[in-house]
Design a protein that fits this description.
Layout (H helix, E strand, L loop, with lengths): L1 H16 L2 E2 L9 E4 L3 E5 L2 E5 L3 E5 L7 E9 L7 E7 L8 H5 L1 E5 L30 E8 L2 E6 L2 E7 L23 E6 L6 E9 L1
Antiparallel strand pairs: 1-13, 2-5, 3-4, 4-13, 5-12, 6-9, 6-13, 7-8, 7-12, 9-10, 10-11
Length: 206
């Protein structure tokens, strides 16, 4: 009996550790888009077109977890997108994620404050490890209370603590400064008509 209980416990633990897939590769169930442009389904992948818009996952808010996003760029130079985190409410417009959450940037050619893995305009990357156009990248965003850690292709490139110093805000489109929610909605950005970014996995592990 004890052996059976141990096996059941191990099975439940394994199930609990399985990542929750937010994108099923078939349709946009559980997702909603706000703003211009769109993120569309193409050959089992999500593709950005036009913008600036925001596609967010409606069914759950997330905190203290690891968000895994697998993406590739298909336009040069500087294909632009991003992953929004810590949005406390469902966004009503595409700028909500910038000013009330954080944007983990996707842009292979921007400066260190705005390049892939940066917390847009707030926390710069420590190294550049994005793969070239057409190759898949794996981004892991770790939410630990007020701390956000970003890994790209297996390397840690950002560790942002909300109580740390940030640069002054100079432009209207830069995020409003201040703390964000520990638990919030997540989303993807479609930035502009020239930027094409594909996503094949968005998952969450706890």
């Amino acid at each position: 009996m004890r052996t059976v209980l141990l096996l059941l416990t191990a099975s439940f633990a394994a199930l609990a550790a399985e990542p929750k897939q937010l994108f099923n590769g078939k349709d946009l169930s559980g997702w909603e888009h706000v703003g211009p442009g769109s993120i569309v389904l193409e050959d089992g992948l999500l593709k950005t077109q036009g913008g600036m818009g925001l596609l967010y996952y409606t069914k759950e808010r997330f905190g203290n977890c690891t968000i895994k996003v697998v993406f590739k760029t298909e336009s040069e130079p500087g294909a632009n997108s991003g992953v929004y985190i810590r949005m406390p409410e469902p966004p009503k417009d595409p700028w909500y994620g910038v000013h009330f959450g954080y944007e983990v940037q996707i842009d292979g050619q921007a400066d260190d404050w705005h390049a892939t893995g940066a917390i847009y305009s707030l926390s710069k990357i420590t190294k550049r490890v994005q793969k070239p156009k057409g190759e898949w990248n794996t981004m892991e965003i770790v939410l630990k209370g007020p701390e956000t850690i970003v890994r790209l292709n297996g390397e840690e490139i950002n560790d942002f603590k909300q109580d740390g110093p940030v640069p002054e805000r100079h432009q209207w489109y830069e995020p409003v400064r201040g703390p964000r929610a520990d638990v919030g909605y997540i989303g993807l950005q479609n930035h502009d008509g020239k930027s094409v970014v594909y996503f094949k996995e968005i998952s969450v592990s706890r």
